[in-house]
Amino acid sequence: MSNAPAAAQALAVLQLLARHAEPMPAAAIARDLGLARSSTYHLLNVLRDAGFVSHLGDDQRWGLGVAAFELGSAYSRQAPLQRISRPVLSRLVDRTTHNAHLVVLHGRDVLYVIEERAQGRPSLVTDVGVRLPAQLTASGLAILAVLPPQQVRALFASRDDFVQRHGRGPTSLTALRSELSQVRTRGYAIEQDSVTPGLASVGAAALDHNGLPAAGIAVTYPYERVAPAEREEVVDAVRRAAADLSRRLGHR
Amino acid sequence: MSNAPAAAQALAVLQLLARHAEPMPAAAIARDLGLARSSTYHLLNVLRDAGFVSHLGDDQRWGLGVAAFELGSAYSRQAPLQRISRPVLSRLVDRTTHNAHLVVLHGRDVLYVIEERAQGRPSLVTDVGVRLPAQLTASGLAILAVLPPQQVRALFASRDDFVQRHGRGPTSLTALRSELSQVRTRGYAIEQDSVTPGLASVGAAALDHNGLPAAGIAVTYPYERVAPAEREEVVDAVRRAAADLSRRLGHR
DNA sequence: TCCGCCTGTCTCGGATGCGAGACACGGCGG
DNA sequence: CCGCCGTGTCTCGCATCCGAGACAGGCGGA
């Protein structure tokens, strides 16, 4: 049984600050987490001393500190999947000239773990570290399509598990299954306007040595400005990248 | 006086794991941090439950978890400097067709906070979140060159403060001052082979509303393959990017 | 100007977190 | 096969951490 409440509280503070777009007052942190105000200050001072939190004295607010950034960067450098995937993604971007990203499945969400901008494309509004519902993204659909069906059913056990975005996305397990069946037939997943209006994505899954999806890889493009022939090339490139990554992950 | 030792210990565990390239056994974590073994397990279990650490059961080792990545990503999305700098860097990469990066000064080191790859260039070996001695990097030299001289002296108070890499870099305050003087005269900083053999960098500082350096911005290129005319264009682009970022930061 | 509210720091006694150590299990080498 | 060593989990008594609350200072509104 874990027995270090102060440690857990410190992590809860970090995760609360991560969820807030702006720095927070200490009293709000204490209230939101149900901590004693004096304990909150103790925790914040420990976090500040280690650099995980910084105190914006003028505003009397507390925000994440640079050590949080360094910790996340260390994870990115260490994580085998990210290390292996980076060159694959770079080649995909160079080949398609569109932005590309890599996701992993976490619960019913996908987590964006790498994003790379293509030359001349908009500066990335950093989506790395962001979670989105898997069924609303091409990369997520590609992953779900190769999951065992009972696992998909377990993930989406009730209607409450379905969320929409911009009025799009499946609203039942039957609808989701139908869509996943199309993904499998087609060999790749597509998504349009669900994440960002005006943008479409083509996604495919990368499998590990057990034949299970380790990641989803996708390219995003403005669909009104990409001709069908170019789109076919994007599809081809995405599928090749997914196959390349699968091989690197020991698949088959 | 901060008073939550378990919180501090949890953070120390995270920072230890961040410094290690590979996951570690619990006993090594306990030994390295001088913690009781049983307490170490408590801490690791708290960290694991929150997702900051993952346990690799097959190997009986503990490594950073995905929540560390999410925390670092949240910082990057929130940090004003990073948000403001990203489009500037993207334009610099597109214009020069070489990899570029942004650093901030931390103590005597620079911390790499953004790196962006250019099309056709090598996949980035992620240097984001890495620290290097400021005096060995073009971006760091550019920052030091516009720091008040007494601050430079305070940073490099003794000969022990000077480190070299690949046999390069200043070894005394006098040598450093001479180099900074050249940077100021030239208007930009250059570095060659100090960080990575075969690569050179051109760097310039971005100033904030107080006229102090908020960041260093640099482009890295293989110097044997870049003609003098192209190098002049790189210099021009870096200086323009630094000036653009300075304006965005409220300078002048 | 005064008062109320918020921030940050500190006190101190009792509840609880910490750590020394025990136990069970698995793997490896002699 | 057996013993040793390392891993992970658990116990329990005492030292110390936690939290209720006090205090000081700053700010804004009436």
Domain count of chain A: 2
Share of helix of chain A, binned: 40-55%
Return the string of H and E elements of chain A: HHHEEHHEEEHHHEEEH
Radius of gyration over C-alpha positions of chain A, nearest whole angstrom: 21 Å
Strand order of the largest sheet of chain A: 5-4-3-8-7-6
SS field, number of helical segments of chain A:
9
* Poorly predicted spans of chain A: none
Instruction: Please name the fourth-level CATH homologous superfamily of the largest domain in chain A.
Output: GAF domain
Keywords (chains A, B): DNA-binding, Transcription, Transcription regulation
InterPro entries (chains A, B): GAF-like_dom_sf, HTH_MetabolicPath_Reg, Tscrpt_reg_IclR_C, Tscrpt_reg_IclR_N, WH-like_DNA-bd_sf, WH_DNA-bd_sf
Domain IclR-ED (chains A, B): 67-251
Pfam families (chains A, B): HTH_IclR, IclR_C
Secondary structure topology:
The structure is a homodimer of 252-residue chains.
Chain A: H1 5-19, H2 26-33, H3 37-49, E1 53-56, E2 61-64, H4 66-78, H5 80-96, E3 99-106, E4 109-116, E5 131-133, H6 138-145, H7 149-155, H8 173-186, E6 189-192, E7 199-207, E8 213-222, H9 228-248
Antiparallel strand pairs in A: 1-2, 3-4, 3-8, 4-5, 6-7, 7-8
Helix pairs in contact in A: 2-3, 5-9, 6-8
Chain A binds a DNA duplex (30 and 30 nucleotides) through residues 1, 3-6, 25-27, 35-39, 41-42, 60.
